[in-house]
Structure formats: structure tokens, C-alpha cells
Amino acid sequence: MDRAQKEKVVDELGQIFESSGVVVVAHYEGMTVAEMQDLRAQMREAGGSVRVAKNKLAKIALEGKPCASIANYLTGMTVLSYSEDPVAAAKVVDDYAKKNEKLVVLGGAMGDSALDPAGVKAVAAMPSREELIASIVGCIGAPASNIAGAIGAPASNIASILSTIEEKAA
């Protein structure tokens, strides 16, 4: 890799570190290509990405960035998982690490907050943006459906009473 390519990689990594809601660092030693492709597919499905980069270039890209604290985790065979959603990448990596012991979570960063492996698990346990939106919409919609049910109930009661009266008359 020549100097221009290295500078391009450092710029790309710098943009990733600035724009991501969460970055998770993990060791992937011993994982097969198929396992790595599976991880990438799951991450893509969740709206995130997986990136393998030279640790030295990643450390250079981290200089002056809010998540610079993850530089200590960049040793050995590391993979960076990231997403704009502050929960998605952590959730996918945590779930994948439970199924595949070759993927070992080292830590990560959420904005300027450093995360240890327990912190990544805690973030993964949080509801995602979509889950929060769905629960808020459910809370907003519940009173309206209760009102509609209350309004509709007397009419159905009257209809059943009328049908009962008709059956007795006939």
C-alpha cells in the first residue's frame, strides 16, 4: 500500500469515527471468510458496517476524534463495527459474539464515551431507534383506540339487544 492509499484509508476511517453513533472493536482471530461475511450481512441488515483496517492507520485516524479512547483496543487482529444508530452495531456484534466465540468484543465508543466489553453489552441491551419509535407511536395511538372502542361499544350493545328482542318476538 503506497502513501496515497494509506492517506485515503485514514480519511475514510476518520469520517467513520466522526459520523458513527457507536464504534465497537473486536478481535476476530480464527474466523472464516464465511463467518466474516455472515457478520457483515447481519450488520448491513441492521444499518451498520464492518471494517477491517490496519491498527496503525486506525490510530492515526482517531487522533483528535471524539472516540479517540478506543485506540488502546487496536492491537492484534481487530475489526471495527459501526453504525449511525447508537445501538445497532453493538447489538449485532454482541449477538454474533454469543454464537461465535472467535469474535471477542474488546470495547468501543459511543460519541466521546469509552465502552468496555460490559458497556458494549449494556448498549446492546438498549432498545434501538426503531423500537423506541414503535413504542412511542403505540403509546400515542392507544388513547385514540380506547376512545374509538368506547364510542363503538354502546352501539354494538344496542344492536345485540335489538337482535335479542327480534329473536324473542319471532
UniProtKB/TrEMBL annotation:
InterPro entries: Ribosomal_uL10, Ribosomal_uL10-like_sf, Ribosomal_uL10_bac, Ribosomal_uL10_bac_type, Ribosomal_uL10_CS_bac. Coiled coil: none annotated. One of its GO terms (molecular function) is structural constituent of ribosome. One of its GO terms (biological process) is translation. One of its GO terms (cellular component) is large ribosomal subunit. Belongs to the universal ribosomal protein uL10 family. Forms part of the ribosomal stalk, playing a central role in the interaction of the ribosome with GTP-bound translation factors. HAMAP family: Ribosomal_uL10. This is Large ribosomal subunit protein uL10. It comes from Pseudoroseicyclus aestuarii. The lineage of its organism: Bacteria, Pseudomonadati, Pseudomonadota, Alphaproteobacteria, Rhodobacterales.
